[in-house]
Design brief:
One of its GO terms (cellular component) is plasma membrane. It holds the Pfam family E1-E2_ATPase. Helix content is 46%, strand content 19%. It is built from 27 helices and 23 strands. The strands form four sheets. Strands 9, 10, 11, 14, 15, 16, 17, 18, 19 and 20 form a ten-stranded mixed sheet that branches. Strands 1, 2, 3, 4, 5, 6 and 7 form a seven-stranded antiparallel sheet that branches. It is elongated, with a radius of gyration of 34 Å.
């Protein structure tokens, strides 16, 4: 049995092993389709697999997107009457041609980004006026931000597809012949029993199959809608707020940051160090620098680095991404390796079933013919003989029906979809079916710390400012911070409120709301608790340059032009990295003094103490810059003055410890991979039950220095990895 199993596995890998969970080659996909020689109902078996012809069309479209066709039009532009009547001065086709064509000349003709904003009746600062009638009017002219989806197929379509099963068609022919011959020989209704029985069986199979497929298609539709629930931050009526991507309209001011997917075509208003990944649209892997000279941002691309404000110009099916998605939606998803192998199994079993069906029919028919020869009646054939031969044929067809597991690949697809639905109920959104299949055979789980093992609700609970450690009581009021000198408080607030990707804004209820990542929110909340005024501090200086935080640099920096004409740089990030970049520190009196070994030791000890208490640490620093600084220059990387270190509490998510224990009991090893301080990571890992007494916690650079043999020995015990 073991040898047969290994032989089957070898056959599967040889013939069907070329298909990967993601990004399989078209040649591999076509090859395994051709190998599925015995397919009773191709429409049903390959319902949830890729349509290779439409996928080729999408690839051709991507290639065409790499070439920007800029067509210079006359300076005179005639606004359509319906657009004028609606209160706008530019039509959607004109907007689309500007952004998709990257037409700088045409953009200048319309007055640049400011001119486009005026013609769209919007404000770059305050966004759209969100009155219902104006929004409806805007939707009628420019459309909505939704892509055309293939309509939900009716039950009758699934019924028709189920009827196209080859074996069912053969059985239907048998039923018809049996009915005609039976009624002719034995009359009605006695001669109709066999034919009607076969027909009833066919109808039962067809209706059960169609009902099951129809219900599952509705579940797939609901699942697809869940995956598309994405929110973005926009400015409307002067307030920054979150809305669904489906509610975005031309004229909206959208705020984008690292990792965001661009929800619509638009123009760059302002931002810093913006890199856009257009590979999903053009296939090009190199990111594109977007700035005021190249302000075009396309829907479906991703923000690789930086942040910006964008003026939305084109939405929905008018965007190039919308046209591409229309093609891809018909192309289907990649087959998972399990689906491919099960199709292979179905094909092999189908061939075996067909072989035995032919053999069975031949044996039965041979018995009948032999009997006729023995009786000397081989030239005399009656209706009864014909009916008996037809019964033998029906038996052979029945063997094929039973033996060929046509619904097996589909059943697995639906079970994966069910697993996806169950995970969604557990607040775990899975976007690809292959992920459920992969997780089913997982023996090791590598988890991030922040937001996965922890709640991602952060608050500053401790801070070491000017050498003094202070605590926040009950996460609400700050205690003992009166010891900090006024000049140190001022520079601290300047650092917190300017060197941030977050914002303190008025919401529609006229209350202040903190927007941003959990870490930024915690720092801004800390700054407000010190009595700071976000807007007032921001207005005191001019932001000249921003280098956003990313996981490689582990720091964020800004340069401010301060009153008097000087420049000041602020940076924050991983405590060890920022502290190494400091040569000075603020003493208890708020004065700048050189950073000696004793003070460095005290600050490093503070970092370790905070980390041992499971606090995430950040170091804040600043430096004065020469007046000749230019925005084209890089922000300095050393020579800073340390303002202080803050400890941020991010509690462990309820139920994590029990989940880790459950995984361990199932033989699954859970590991933590994080970019936080190693001591913080170890403390959280122990609290979660990940780090055990015989487990190993190691930093990434140390791990990468080890030989392959040393890595293989270490990996079974590795439980915490600090990148």
């Amino acid at each position: 049995m073991r040898g047969r199993g290994e032989g089957m596995e070898s056959c599967m890998n040889q013939n069907f092993g070329g298909v990967k969970p993601k990004h399989s080659s078209e040649e591999a996909l076509r090859r395994w389709r051709q190998l599925c020689g015995v397919v009773k109902n191709p429409k049903r078996r390959f319902r949830f697999t890729a349509n290779l012809s439409t996928r080729s069309e999408a690839a051709a479209m991507k290639k065409s997107n790499q070439v920007c066709s800029c067509v210079t039009l006359p300076s005179e532009y005639c606004v359509p009457e319906e657009v004028k009547a609606a209160g706008f001065q530019i039509c959607p086709d004109e907007l689309g041609s500007i952004v998709e064509g990257h037409d700088v000349k045409k953009l200048k003709i319309h007055g640049g980004v400011d001119g486009i904003a005026d013609k769209l009746s919007t404000s770059i600062d305050n966004g759209l006026i969100a009155s219902e009638d104006k929004m409806m009017c805007r939707q009628e002219i420019y459309g909505i931000n939704k892509f055309t989806e293939s309509p939900v197929r009716s039950f009758w379509v699934f019924l028709w597809e189920a009827l196209q099963d080859t074996t069912l068609i053969i059985l239907a022919v048998c039923a018809f012949v049996s009915l005609i011959v039976g009624v002719s020989a034995e009359g009605w209704p006695k001669g109709s029993h066999d034919g009607v029985g076969i027909a009833a069986s066919i109808l039962l199979v067809v209706f059960v199959t169609a009902t099951s497929d129809y219900r599952q298609s509705l579940q797939f539709k609901d699942l697809d809608n869940e995956k598309k629930k994405i929110s973005v931050q926009v400015t409307r009526d002067g307030f920054r707020q979150k809305i669904s991507i489906y509610d975005i309209l031309p004229g909206d001011i959208v705020h984008l940051a690292i990792g965001d997917q661009v929800p619509a075509d638009g123009l760059f208003i302002s931002g810093f160090s913006l890199l856009i990944d257009e590979s999903s649209l053009t296939g090009e892997s190199e990111p594109v620098v977007v700035n005021s000279d190249n302000p075009f941002i396309l829907s479906g691309t991703k923000v690789r680095d930086g942040s910006c404000k964008m003026l939305v110009t084109t939405v929905g099916m008018r965007t190039q991404w919308g046209k591409l998605m229309e093609t891809l939606s018909e192309g289907g998803d990649d087959e998972t390796p399990l689906q491919v192998k099960l199709n292979g199994v179905a094909t092999i079993i189908g061939k075996i079933g067909l072989f035995f069906a032919v053999v069975t029919f031949a044996v039965l028919a041979e018995g009948l013919i032999t009997h006729k020869i023995q009786d000397g009646l081989y030239l005399s054939w009656s209706i009864d003989d014909a009916l008996e031969l037809l019964d033998y044929f029906a038996i052979a067809v029945t063997i094929v029906v039973v033996a060929v597991p046509e619904g097996l690949p589909l059943a697995v697809t639906l079970s994966l979809a069910f697993a996806m639905k169950k995970m969604m109920n557990d607040k775990a959104l899975v976007r690809h079916l292959a992920a459920c299949e992969t997780m089913g055979s997982a023996t090791s789980i590598c988890s991030d710390k922040t937001g996965t093992l922890t709640t991602n609700y952060m608050t500053v609970v401790k801070a070491c400012i000017c050498g003094n450690i202070n605590e926040a009581s009950d996460h609400e009021e700050v205690r003992n911070f009166t010891q900090i000198p006024d000049n140190a408080i001022k520079i601290l607030l300047e650092s917190i409120f300017n060197n941030t990707s977050g914002e303190v804004a008025l919401n529609q209820d006229r209350k202040y709301e903190i927007l941003g990542t959990p870490t930024e929110t915690a720092l801004l909340e800390f700054g407000l608790s010190l009595g700071g005024d976000f807007q007032a501090v921001r207005q005191e200086s001019n932001l000249v340059k921003v280098e956003p935080f990313n996981s490689v640099k582990k720091r964020m920096g800004v340069v401010l032009q301060i009153p008097g004409g000087g420049y000041r740089a602020h940076c924050k990030g991983a405590s060890e990295i920022i502290l190494d970049a400091c040569s000075n520190v603020l003493d208890p009196a708020g004065s700048v003094v050189p950073l000696d070994e004793v003070t460095v030791g005290h600050l490093k000890s503070t970092i370790d103490t905070f980390a041992d208490e499971a606090l995430r640490t950040l170091c804040l620093a600043y430096m004065e810059i020469d007046k000749s600084f230019s925005a084209d220059e890089q922000i300095p990387v050393d020579g800073y003055t340390c303002i202080g270190i803050v400890g941020i509490k991010d509690p462990v998510r309820p139920g994590v410890k029990e989940s880790v224990a459950l995984c361990r009991s199932a033989g699954i090893t859970v590991r933590m991979v994080t970019g936080d301080n190693i001591n913080t990571a170890k403390t959280i890992a122990r609290e979660c039950g990940i780090l055990t007494d015989d487990g190993v916690a190691i930093e990434g650079p140390d791990f990468r220095k080890k030989s392959l043999e040393e890595m293989n020995q270490l990996i079974p015990k590795l439980q915490v990895l600090f990148l």
